[in-house]
Design a protein that fits this description.
Blueprint: H1 3-6, E1 7-11, E2 14-15, E3 22-23, E4 38-45, E5 49-55, E6 60-66, E7 68-75, E8 80-87, E9 92-96, E10 101-106, E11 111-118, E12 127-129
Antiparallel strand pairs: 1-9, 2-3, 4-11, 5-10, 5-12, 6-9, 6-11, 7-8, 7-10
């Protein structure tokens, strides 16, 4: 299976208003969304990396409404990487099915905010982890 079949990127809608813009994220009719069991925020500081994780059951829907984050997805079977940068200026949702190694790096000054709408509740037994140096981040 190609890495692109496990990861989809969806454009998100921005609505201009006088008092401040509205950034839509997701609703029950959004493409590729199959409901959620948990939503959480994660902060990432500029230049910092959080990697590597691999979900065995969870489908993630990742959005960066504040700042900018570079995501790296890695398919261990094919040895293929996929790099996607999203944030306020490139406002999109990334759907990630289980079975992909991933990490991310803060690439805008200050801190960036990541939101995950997951289809399962966090279970520490469902996620695998590797140290950063176990997958060659610098290749991407």
């Amino acid at each position: 299976m190609k890495i692109e079949t496990k990861i989809k990127v969806y454009p998100l809608k921005k609505v201009k208003t006088k008092g401040g813009d509205i950034y839509r994220i997701i609703d029950k009719n959004s493409k590729g969304f199959n409901g959620f069991s948990e939503t959480y925020f994660s902060w990432i500081n500029y230049g910092k990396v959080k990697a590597w994780k691999y979900h065995t059951k969870m489908t993630m829907n990742l959005v960066v409404p504040l700042g900018k984050v570079k995501f790296i997805f890695f398919d261990l079977k094919t040895k293929k990487f996929l790099r996607i940068i999203v944030g306020k200026s490139n406002y999109k949702r990334i759907r990630v099915k289980p079975g992909i190694w991933f990490g991310f790096k803060g690439v805008s000054s200050g801190s960036s905010l990541l939101v995950n709408f997951a289809d399962t509740v966090h279970d520490p037994d469902e996620v695998l982890r590797k140290e950063l140096n176990e997958i060659e981040w610098s290749l991407v």
